[in-house]
């Protein structure tokens, strides 16, 4: 059976009261003839063997826990549990069990453990008759009480009954009175028993008991009982810490007594869960789920009560932004807001939205802008945490605030620039704060969370703002540490180049690595804005200076930045890299690395492998032309030989293409020469028949020869590009001149004049009249129908220079 809904683990409770895993399989509910009833069958998913066969008895008490767990007892000391992979599967089997027993599936317990003989008298008996019978609350019976509490923990039904018994008899307060007595008598054995009892009562996981135990008059005694762990040589001093060391600070007076009590209670219960109680085992985690819920709902109440108290919050904000507020007071105010925001994470999404909107309306962001610029490290750290909550909640809200800030003459006052400066100036050697702030910046500039349909221009507007006002602040340390020093030059030490401007300080190198990581993110996600910025500042050249760093991680960051740029396969970037010869520092780093097979070596080779595989022609040609001699000795990978091969292939293709072009161009010239020779004969014959006055001929001929010489000189300068289209352009220029020179002469005379033109150049086309020539008599003149569309022909020839003019016949 492959249905994951029915996939379960089978557990049994051993003699040491520990759950043993019997295997994983798939459960089904099937009628078994041999047992004469509906049974739960679990077959192993590995080999299909039977892990469990349990008949659903009408009198067995089944309990559903945590939505995916069904627990029951088949014998006095044989408890079973099915842990489901999915809630849906648990619900299906639970409904089947309830159907067999005739119970409502909405119940979590199918049976009360009452004998059949007593069922008829259930309605007549008081509710307490079903409770566990507790021994008298006396010093002499503490061991018995401890054994009873410990023994019921394995049975959900018995835990329920014990909890009811403890509540009905006010037993908790009696036990805590015995605790005070034992402490006065220094009865260590009794105190150890009380530790087991109180710990067991907490594991009963009942909110009603917690309300009693964590009340103001009981909670310190509960903490006292938990100090006497039998496993410890000396008891802990938790009460001393809670009453003397831990101090409750009111940044502003809290007049609401209920709110004060809730804050105290939550702190102490959290202390019990986190500090006093030992870490629960896998099977004990569920025992304290109600305790976790108790703390959770307390926090929700605290946040709600504070949020509703606008007077208190307004006063807190006023003191936070007041310049007269003392530093110690301001530190407490910021810490208050930090705790406030941390508690807000327990709210439901809609309530959390309302909470952060309340803070935004009260002016949390302007307050943070002031606080983050202060010198106090603790205040700055707390303010950073608060900003983290706000950015995680709504990056758009923070971006909107930043863009609405008045543009001051000094960009340093902008919130994002304050964040960047804090990142740059982090005094922590490990740059813990800088890493956190970089994460904030990355979230703010991430276009993925700028796609809200309500504000489609947010991405464009914010990125333009960021690159205009903030990017120069972010890159300042990088540019400062890679600036060219006129007094310094590369110094040779053996075979390794050392650049003096390259940072050797580890903390500075870490900071530059963080900045490079952010810039690499920008290359990938801000293609337009980042491209302009890189070109305008020559940023890649400055980054590649870091390839000389003695810190390999920083050199790798610089290489990763270049790799991301090349990975875009943008010819704009490629031309920039070629023009700046920016492969040189990368190749120098590869050669300086020598024969060491390390991450730097592999990363550089991967860069060239990418260029080869993607066949980036411009970069391949540049690398082979300029660096192949230095790289051809590297033979342990075929990358560079492959680049050379790609280069040669492309060179051969270009050669073949050029030869094919020459072959295609030659017949055009031959055809044109033949056409010109034939044309001369036709025009000579036309000239003899028609004639032309000797007065017009010299003027036209001189203009023609002058234009012809000019064109021939142009053709000699651009001979490889000369085609018939060139002669066509000459024709157009001369035709205009001829038309101008022959103004007033008839079209026949103009044609006759062109026929006497020597040298066989495009005389026929040169003498084209402005209007079509009509054939008359026996003269064999050529009609040019296309000349009416002379302007269209001119446009076509400019677009296709190899295309010959269409000539009539």
Short description:
The chain is an alpha+beta fold and 809 residues long.
Mean pLDDT: 77
**Structural class of the secondary structure composition?**
alpha+beta
* Number of DSSP E strands: 9
The fraction of residues in strands falls at: 5-15%
Uncertain parts: 113-129, 485-500, 689-698, 716-809
Largest sheet: 7 strands, antiparallel
Q: What does the radius of gyration come to?
A: 46 Å
State the helix count: 34
Distance between the termini: 87 Å
Shape: extended
Neighbour order of strands in the largest sheet: 4-3-2-1-7-6-5
Helix content: 55-70%
Region (Disordered): 669-700, 707-726, 737-809
Domain PP4R3 EVH1-like: 5-101
Organism: Alosa alosa (allis shad)
Biased composition (Low complexity): 737-763
Could you explain how this protein is built, in words?
The chain is of the alpha+beta class. The protein contains 34 helices and 9 strands. It is extended and about 130 Å long.
Pick out its properties.
809 residues, alpha+beta, 7-stranded antiparallel sheet, two-stranded antiparallel ribbon, 9 strands, 7% strand, disordered C terminus
